[in-house]
Amino acid sequence: MPEKRSSEKKASIRKQSLEERLNEYPELKAKIETMLSIIENAGGDVEKAAEAERRIIEEMRQMGNEVLHGWARRQQQKKEDETDAKRGVNRKEKKTSTGTRGLEKSK
Fold it and tell me: Is the Cβ–Cβ distance between 52 and 41 less than 8 Å?
């Protein structure tokens, strides 16, 4: 069954435009817009290719970091939701026991 859901998800992703997909990730969309501004020299402050390259590289590093953190948060949430959906699993209950007492004292 997981293969079927995976292929259905892939098919639905293909049906969406790039803009629709980027709208689902506003942080990523903002980073791409920032990089486009650098490429287009919207501020008029980039005169040398080395400066444009430095700015693009920094934006790419930040974007990669943010994207991976977002991915990790989504994966964690997915696992938590799966665990919460299972019957008999209670991961949020506080333990009341500190353990069992030994029957005899050590000598």
Answer: yes
Q: Give the pLDDT band (50/70/90) at residue 29.
A: very high
Q: What angle do CA 65, 68, 73 make, to 5 degrees?
A: 125
Between CA 107 and CA 100 the distance in angstroms is 19
Q: Which residue has the tokens 């920094």?
A: 58
In angstroms, rounded to a whole number, what is the distance separating the alpha carbons of residues 23 and 41? 24
pTM to 2 decimal places: 0.57
Whats the size of the chain, residue-wise?
A: 107
What angle is formed at CA 51 by the lines to CA 50 and CA 55, rounded to 5 degrees? 115
- Confirm if 46 and 55 have CB atoms less than 8 A apart: yes
pLDDT tens digit sequence for 57-96: 999 999 999 989 989 999 999 998 888 888 776 656 666 7
